């Protein structure tokens, strides 16, 4: 049976490279609550979607978002718009105008792509990134990440730690949960499964699957150059980009689809507005006088 997944409304730290690495400080009280466990705690897909939306709404308010006529938005519409819904899911997406090379997705179907990522990856590579994000949502990784973030934050409150239902969180807690979403750590198994999902997504929709390998090669190259310190956080917590690129190449070779990928031209600017010049011709009329 084909696995279906529902998103009410995608986290891309696997590809993502970001300076936003705020960590949640549990403190002694929270550690004690963790040791005792959370009595009867339940967290449904609907809970994940609701909390994710609240956290993303706060992030949206704190970051510059590309407008509807901005070149970044127009490009994302063109590249990703046709995949915003299907197979039981609906996604909403926006561009954060930030230089960081990152993108993330959440359980409510919110996809946020950083302009820094769009500056270095072409359309096919972006599709590989977004397909990876859909994979995390399809596999419930995003749901589990928001659940873990909520549990850790709720445990800072003695009453909330003993609740069997999801309590309302404060603005401060939402900020910490949002940071945790961006900085979420997926296991190697989860990342590999999301990579495979992205590959199959591209193959199913007729994209060049070799762009997935290319996206990882770009990140691997960045990790070796002047931007190495910028991506230490990602490299320390996720599978090696070179290995993942090699795995993507092997998948393509196995399917007889492998061909060295050549990155396409990247255009993030809006098309120039052409002003049509109108020339008004005044027709001179001569009236002959009768003699």
Explain this structure.
There is one protein chain. By secondary structure, the chain is mostly helical. It has 12 helices and 5 strands. The longest helix has 18 residues. It is globular and about 50 Å long. 41% of the residues are buried. The N terminus and C terminus are likely disordered.
Q: Cα-atom Rg, whole angstroms?
A: 24 Å
Reported for the largest beta sheet, the result is:
3 strands, mixed
> Could you list the spans in which at least 5 consecutive residues all have pLDDT below 50?
1-40, 226-237, 278-283, 285-291
Helix amount? 40-55%
Major sheet strand order = 3-5-4
Key attributes of the depicted protein:
291 residues, three-stranded mixed beta sheet, 5 strands, disordered C terminus, 48% helix, disordered N terminus, 6% strand, two-stranded antiparallel ribbon, mainly alpha, single chain
Would you kindly provide a brief summary of this structure?
This protein is mainly α.
Layout of strands and helices, then pairs:
Elements lengths: L26 H10 L8 H18 L8 H10 L4 E2 L2 E2 L1 E5 L6 E3 L4 E5 H4 L4 H16 L2 H14 L3 H4 L9 H12 L5 H17 L5 H15 L7 H6 L3 H14 L37
Helix pairs in contact: 2-6, 2-8, 5-9, 5-10, 6-8, 10-12
């Amino acid at each position: 049976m084909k696995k279906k997944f529902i998103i009410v409304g995608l986290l891309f730290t696997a590809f993502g490279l970001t300076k936003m690495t705020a960590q949640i400080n549990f403190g002694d009280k929270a550690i004690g609550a963790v040791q005792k466990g959370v009595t009867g705690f339940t967290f449904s897909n609907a809970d994940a979607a609701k909390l994710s939306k609240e956290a993303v709404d706060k992030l949206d308010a704190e970051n510059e978002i590309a407008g509807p006529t901005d070149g970044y938005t127009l490009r994302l519409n063109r590249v990703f718009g046709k995949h915003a819904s299907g197979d039981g899911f609906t996604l909403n997406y926006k561009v954060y105008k930030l230089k960081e090379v990152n993108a993330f997705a959440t359980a409510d179907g919110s996809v946020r792509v950083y302009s820094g990522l769009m500056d270095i990856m072409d359309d096919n590579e972006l599709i590989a990134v977004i397909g990876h994000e859909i994979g995390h949502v399809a596999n419930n990784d995003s749901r589990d990440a928001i659940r873990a973030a909520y549990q850790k934050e709720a445990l800072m409150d003695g009453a909330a730690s003993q609740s069997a239902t999801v309590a309302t969180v404060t603005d401060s807690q939402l900020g910490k949960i949002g940071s945790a979403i961006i900085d979420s750590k997926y296991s190697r198994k989860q990342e590999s499964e999301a990579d495979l999902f992205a590959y199959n997504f591209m193959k199913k929709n007729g994209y060049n699957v070799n762009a997935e390998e290319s996206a990882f090669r770009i990140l691997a190259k960045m990790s070796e150059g002047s931007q190495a310190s910028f991506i230490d956080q990602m490299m320390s917590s996720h599978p090696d980009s070179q290995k993942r690129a090699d795995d993507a190449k092997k998948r393509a070779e196995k399917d007889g689809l492998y061909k060295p990928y050549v990155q396409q031209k990247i255009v993030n600017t809006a098309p120039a507005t052409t002003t049509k010049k109108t020339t008004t011709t005044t027709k001179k009329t001569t009236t002959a006088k009768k003699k």
